[in-house]
Amino acid sequence: MSWTTGVTYIYDGTFDGLLTCVFESYERKEELADISSAEEPQAVLFAPRTVATCQAKAERVYESIARNISPQAQDLIRCGFLTCAPQKELLIYRFLRIGFRVGGQVMQMLTEPSIHQLNKAVRHLKTESHAFMGFVRFSIHDDVLVAVIEPKNQVLPLIAGHFCQRFAGDTFLIYDKNHGEALMYRHDARPEDRLMMLNADEISIPEADEKEEGYRRLWKRFYDTVAIQERINHRARLSHMPKRYWAHLTEMQEE
Amino acid sequence: MDVYDKLTILSDSAKYDVSCSSSGVERGNTPGGTGNTAGCGICHSFTADGRCISLLKVLMSNSCIFDCKYCVNRRSNDTRRAMFTPEELADLTMNFYRRNYIEGLFLSSGIMRNPDYTTEQLIKVLELLRHTHRFNGYIHVKAIPGAAPELISRLGLLADRMSVNIELPTQDSLRLLAPDKSKESILKPMSAIRRGIQENSLDLMKYRHAPRFVPGGQSTQMIVGATPDSDLKIITLTESLYKKFQLKRVYFSAYTPVMEDSLLPALNSKPPLLREHRLYQADWLLRFYGFEAKELLDEGAPNFNPFMDPKCNWAMNHIDQFPVEVNTAPYDKLVRVPGIGIRSAKRIVTARRAGRIDFHGLKKLGVVLKRAQYFITCSGRRLEGLKVNESTILRSLISKREYSMYLPSPQVEQLSLFSDEELAAGAGKEVLLP
């Protein structure tokens, strides 16, 4: 029996939901032309099928990726799912279609268009995550460290480990305003409750106290002083630290 | 004087030290401690001059008994002097670190009283941070020329990276501009650190938990443009520092005139930023691309071409080694192609295991075809319609403006239906065959 082409699936927007779509696609022999989490489907040849997330099916797909492709491929699609690529679901699906056909070699097929796009999106995610390890700015309120970020990709899962280790003895919160998610770490909680991901549309941050203001002033002073006037190069600064980061950088705030 | 003023004075006088990297050490946190280090290093901000801020870069004190002519902190300069107490510095570092402003501390100092005393002060700060505050972040500390070896090894056990600045590439320049320093006083601490690292690596083989001595290695810095030393001298010295002293990094600092002196460039002269840039490009070629200094420059041409980067320049002078076939050439040949860097060369090596690569594929792998096209073939073929001659290659390697400066020939160009690239293709001489 040959595969039906041009089918659209709709899923609930979760990673398990996407893997369930992959399962159903093989089960029903339907080649997907689109996978979307949007409510209103676009005009397509066949009516879109809404796929109900099933954890058992998702797990079967996820495990078979490690077995039939490679553990690195698991990593890649997990990261792919966190990116801001417009059709990340489809890129992941196409990667898996090729992967289940050729096996581990799919990781080397860097010039294949959809694999190239997936890799590029993941690179963007990783570059941005690395940048945020530096660009997160905490304010300290009653010994709790609080930061707000506005990343394009969902970087929190990738930077969580770094900050949890670095500030293992602290309590901190990093709020991703763009995705409405927050990472919370409490050093005094039980080990299994220490790290939590919360959904939050908004958080309120208390006013900075005098001590906090003092250190912000010192930092800004340092920032302004270390630049060498004879070497001013605004373009170089912009290319390393684009303006979209400035809103939450202490040193870039007007007094 | 409060901490705010001290920070202003002591960061202002530290800013000419270039190194700010926090790389080379991968270390986790300890129970009850604060901080860790990342092997790749992390930049936390970028200043208006486009340089990265990774560490809190300050001097402990800017009073100095030395009188080096190029230095703002020299004894005879009339400037405001300040000194941090170890407690102030530790407090500042911890509070900046917890707000994620910085990756750690870069601590240097003017020479107070004598080199040993100064080193002892630095040790005090580092001990306070490491032992009292249990700080596990990155610390870069300067080894003071002339300090006792025991003190340097104590300092090295507390720091991640150490550096001794060479400042001037020849002994003559040193004698002229830094009369209190000598080649020996600089090389002595440098070799002490190298010895420490070597002995430590033996200890670590025997005892896994032996304390680590300067795990991030050592670096140094040279001033460019304060003396008439050639690029060849600088880059040859750089190479031998990497080979003989196993340095991790050599930094270059375009000389910014800070004071009037008959021996120095005039106060209104601009720092030679382009020259500094070329030296860094060459430094990268030495460290990552497998080039040797003698391949890049020789007595006949002792300075870098300002219009073209050293790699392109090398390729133009060794055109007989091209084109290379991307599907079969070994990695170290690939990285020598203009337009192919370390990353794209690695991707080529990976991707060609899965199938042959064509010109479309190369673009996806991150190769800059505009430059690379003249130096490569894909499955034995050149890019279709490519005109290969000296003039077209030059135009692809350097910008239009620089191209007109580069060629001494008369620059008369008439309005024409054809682009100047096409015209040039007919006019230039053929150099690349087959």
From TrEMBL, chain A:
Short name of any one Pfam family annotated for the protein: DUF4130
InterPro entries: DNA_repair_put, DUF4130
Residue ranges of domain DUF4130 in the record: 86-251
Name of the protein in question: TIGR03915 family putative DNA repair protein
UniProtKB/TrEMBL annotation, chain B:
InterPro entries tied to this protein: DNA_rSAM_put (IPR023874), Endo/Exo/Phosphatase_dom_1 (IPR051675), rSAM (IPR007197)
Coiled-coil residue windows: none
Domain (Radical SAM core) ranges: 59-195
Matching PANTHER family: ENDONUCLEASE/EXONUCLEASE/PHOSPHATASE FAMILY DOMAIN-CONTAINING PROTEIN 1 (PTHR21180), TYPE II SECRETION SYSTEM PROTEIN K (PTHR21180:SF9)
Protein name: DNA modification/repair radical SAM protein
Organism encoding this protein: Paenibacillus brevis
Lineage summary: Bacteria, Bacillati, Bacillota, Bacilli, Bacillales
